[in-house]
Amino acid sequence: MLTDREILSVLEMLQNEHLDVRAVTMGISLFDCASDDLERFSANIQRKITRLAGQLVNVCDEVGEKYGIPVVNKRIAVSPMAVVGAPFNAEEMVVAAQALDAAAREVKIDFLGGFSALVEKGMSRGDLALMDAIPEALTRTERVCASVNVASTRAGINMDAVLKMGAQIKQAAALTADRDGLACAKLCVFANIPQDVPFMAGAYLGVGEADAVINVGVSGPGVVKKAIDRAVAQNPHLDLGELSEIIKRTAYKVTRVGELIGREVAQRVGQRFGVVDLSLAPTPNVGDSVGEIFQSMGLLSIGVPGTTAALAMLNDAVKKGGAFASSHVGGLSGAFVPVSEDLNISEAAEKGYLSIEKLEAITSVCSVGLDMVAIPGDTSAETLSAIIADEMAIGVINKKTTATRIIPVPGKGAGEHAYFGGLLGESVIMPVNTAAEPNPFIRRGGLIPSPIHSLRN
Q1: Rounded CA gap, 419 and 356, in Å?
Q2: Residues 72-104 pLDDT 10s
Q3: 1-337 CATH
Q4: pTM of the entire predicted model
Q5: Residue 284 in contact with residue 336, Cβ under 8 Å?
Q6: Nearest to residue 313, comparing CAs of 401, 217, 227, 247?
Q7: Distance CA 250, CA 223 (A)
Q8: Domain ranges of the chain
Q9: Cross-strand pairs, 25
Q10: Are 334 and 279 in contact (CB under 8 A)?
Q11: What is the largest CA-CA distance in the chain?
Q12: What is the 3-state composition of the chain as percent helix, strand, coil, each rounded to the nearest 5?
């Protein structure tokens, strides 16, 4: 039960700390839309999405206004298109992506995820067609996001898929060179991808999910920072265990708010409620930063020594508070560290406090990975693949989700700036270690076997 003081603190979050629900995502299964006729398939997709999600944006706005808690992003996640559209070739997959984009535009949602393939153990014809289509599809659409799962703890790392995705990222950047490689900002490469992520660009609806479901991403880094600041102002000598307790209690309150909104939205649109994702997701706005939490805990900046320990504590406390608040926790439920989307993290990279190597290290204790990292445009496809492989290995060995969303910015080098706009923000271009070019290890391909602890049956 919340005390009177805690209820007042929630009101303070709403009035002065910009508490919001970061994302409400409707998952929609497209398996019953399957057809080997592209025109019929596209029509089936648009008809189902508009029927189920036609009122999603209005309902989210109405529920947000009712409680005074805005729902910032309204999104859709669909079944993996590599499976649903398996009969089609790469060119036809691009047309299917445009049909998804048209449906997203009609129902006025922000992003649609699920242009996805699950290839951790091998690649089928549909998987290859989708992966070949990704650069063109993300260039020709505005709202469609793509994800490819190339590794899992149970299967290992599909290095053939990793090598291919390095080339696809390079091509996607080239096709959007006039926008600093923007297509790459809508593409995630995963290990151990969850089936119920409400956050983009990795959202898709897993094959074990319901026909339609509402998932919620609560976020709230600014609220966590303010809670720490208030506590430290009252008692400057708080130890880290006491700070962890404050973060946990704050996460509890934020999660309860998120589930309240999600359940009412689900009830109003006539679909089941799925999960609350506890991830701390920043924006480029001042005061809404994961990076600032590190400073409130006593570090000079994210990236300096102590960062990994601080992030481990933060991630654990958020999960403990959220798990106590809700029996329906899912998705990623960790701390995002997207460089361009977080003003504080972007500044840390520009000042040299944060490197790609340190980002990779801290992903061993958080739930995402190398996220929205701008790198020099002349980085080779092989080096991109090697960076992906390193991140996948962290996820596979640690039995957790990791991902890469890296953007080789065409025509720009380390120290220059990339501008993506809106929620995607801007960032300094971070240097990359290219000493291993060419890289025979990556070119070997094959399957890196699953670790011994994958034998859990």
Answers
A1: 19
A2: 889 999 999 999 999 999 999 999 999 999 999
A3: 3.20.70.20
A4: 0.90
A5: no
A6: 247
A7: 8
A8: 1-337
A9: 75, 215
A10: yes
A11: 67
A12: 50, 20, 35
